[in-house]
């Protein structure tokens, strides 16, 4: 069957739902996670860094323009994702000993290398302890963060990653040893700050304290009670995303805190201006309008600077809440759940951001209304001034018309005088030529005729000018 031609974006849009899938995980497993805030140039540099690492390990690199990439690099598995504001890297190593292998490539060697073997589920399963000495029995349960996945990644490559570090976390996926859940979490974290819950319909348990440890990383512990590899991957991904988007959302908090006193000052300035508008005279209105326009410009400028930050914080907070709901948490007696912790700690910060953003928008609207009101008053004043000016102009025009009419009367007399004089010269010449004409009589008779003709000609000229004006 021959189908119609594909839309240019059909495949891209269809594959978008498959972008950035979770990695299937099998306990025991170690993940190290780094999220770096990057501008456009740094995001492009992050792609080049991943290409360099893949080529260094003899693995096909990501294609130009790719936004995510995952591959087995022998000693560890890497997952790279590029987002609008940040880039994140996830390094995965299986096995109790952490999959650490020393070699010329900075801990990356080929072969069985770290016990990473792809199975039918495309996941990571335990191997021969990464070529290192096996851990002492029970050591993983005693300290699940004794070994980290990042120890298998070349230090020189990690140090050159572009961007500013925003989130760094170690996640340990351990098997269920039948212990009390609170004891499992308390062994890795301080009991007074422990946050934990059952996840994925009680198929697993997750613990964290949202603290940054001396090595610069926070810690997340996931206990596999009956998780499938894909479930474990989704739980790990959601936990890391909660930590990431929580931090990205909180980027708006310092902006809101610094903006709050500025908004308070602008609100006070607006109150003074509106109070002055009540008793302001015509001479004060332009000054008040200038103050208002300057205030509006300052508010609009600041709003343009932080509008994206507040909008992004709202979107990130929504993602955090959605990821928490996707965990399908169940309470572990005596511990706070992630939902409770984020609502108690993060909700006030987000409410502060929303409050400042709302105050800023409301202030902008109030300034716009005050500016419109004052501009209307100034416009009415100017119209009144213009009306007075036009009335003065009209008076001047009427005076000019009267003066012109007087001048026109004098001009008729002057023209009549000169024309009658010409008639007199003609009559005198005719008299000397023998014509029976008396010059004085001819001049006397021509005066009313000439004056009447001049008056009629002037009236006709006025009618023509009036007709042109009406046209």
Can you tag this structure with a few keywords?
alpha+beta; 471 residues; 14% strand
Shape: elongated
The assigned structural class equals alpha+beta
What does the radius of gyration come to?
A: 45 Å
Q: What strand line-up does the widest sheet have? A: 2-3-4-1-7-10-9-8-11
Sheet having the most strands: 9 strands, mixed
Number of strands: 11
The overall pLDDT average reads 83
Helix content: 55-70%
Series of H and E elements: HEHEEEEEHHEHEEEHHHEHH
| Termini gap | 74 Å
Helical segment count: 10
Strand content: 5-15%
Q: Segments where pLDDT lies below 50 for 5+ residues?
A: 97-141
How would you describe the overall organization of this protein?
- The chain is α+β, with helices and mostly antiparallel strands.
- Helices cover 55% and strands 14% of the residues.
- The chain contains 10 helices and 11 strands.
- A 9-stranded mixed β-sheet has the order 2-3-4-1-7-10-9-8-11, sandwiched between helices. Strands 5-6 form a two-stranded antiparallel sheet.
- Strand 3 and strand 4 form a beta hairpin.
- Helix 6 runs antiparallel to helix 8.
- The longest helix has 95 residues, at 338-432.
- The model is unreliable at 97-141 (pLDDT under 50).
